[in-house]
Amino acid sequence: MAKTDLTYEHGKNLYINLTNECPCSCDFCLRDGGGSIYADNLWYGESEPTKEEFLSDLETRDLLKYEEIVFCGFGEPACRWDDMMWLCDKIKEKGSFLIRINTNGLSDLINERSTAAELDGRVDSISISLNAATPEDYDALCHSSFGLEALPAIIKFTANCVLVVPRVYMTVISTMDEEEIEACRAICKKIGAELVIREYIDKEDDMNGFIKEAGMDVLTAINTRKSIRNFTGEAIGEAELSTILRSGFNAPSARNCRPWDFIVVKNSETMAKIAEACPNMGMINRGADCCVVLCGDLNLSDRDVFLVTDCSAAAENMLLTAHALGLGGVWCHAAHDEQRAFFTELFDLPETVKSVMVLVLGHPAEKPEIPERFDEKHVHHEKYN
């Protein structure tokens, strides 16, 4: 199992995975899937890190690069309320960083006291899961250990937060019917909170949900993607790179052979060697963060043409995902005999594993115009005409 992530990057924010404890077992929660689409591993073992270990982890990060620091992981952060308040103080001591808490709003019941006033001066925004308009519906959906006491306590906590936190919003999931959403909107209006409708992340289709969370749907990504050849030099987050790679693995392949291997290259010397050996990859030297060398294994798919088509499908998935996450990339051919000989020697590839293409990825330093590329004269019906 991968090392547990105390903190992880998602989009432009840094998230703190404070605890795995939670008094709820919501029907829609990703925790039940056993993994995470945001980091390699958010599950702790028998013991959880101390507040000091979280602080040490934060001190390895460049906090200035994040828009927000968010308490949100595979658990309810209010279960470690006192540690969270301590960490908020330590973060604020380091600078005027924006802090957000994502919570189920059950802090008062969890900690057996009124807690909202303690957020004053510590937290800049708070997102509170609502998801139902009546105690009975909430209990049926979220299965809180507090039963029918849960929703009234959440509403009271939220109303108290409105008095001390600059931005307070309650969230519902998009699968709720319109009548339920309007009832939740009325609750928010009454107590002075915003209502935010979150896209539902399907457990069976969580990658598409992740892209929606990043702020771009699939059709927008397809119709606005352009090749990027100039980059800022800024590093790609670990979670973002993991998401890009996972999208590659979800591509279709001939006979479902899935013959690909992806070699991630971040070492600057190795990247420079690739740029020098392959003139079509000179953009590597223009601020790219990494390369992904897509290879195909003839032991898994016995035709070279299938290696090319299968890796092409994977590459398109990865480029679209990078674009949806606000990143940029370009696809470079790497299947000429001399290129394959170079990559075989560079990476000590087995005889049956062949380079096919290279993706160059990074934060875009350019914003190309998006022309209308649909051309009806190249569309034919029933026969070529």
Overall description:
There is one protein chain. The protein has 385 residues and is an alpha/beta fold. The protein has two domains: 7-204, TIM Barrel; 218-362, NADH Oxidase (3-Layer(aba) Sandwich), CATH 3.40.109.10. The chain has helices at residues 51-58, 81-94, 107-111, 135-142, 150-162, 178-191, 206-213, 218-224, 238-249, 268-277, 304-324, 337-347; strands at residues 7-10, 13-16, 69-71, 99-103, 125-129, 167-173, 194-198, 260-265, 290-297, 328-333, 353-362. The strands form two sheets. It has a seven-stranded mixed sheet with strand order 1-2-3-4-5-6-7. A four-stranded antiparallel sheet has the order 8-9-11-10, sandwiched between helices. The model is unreliable at 203-215 (pLDDT under 50).
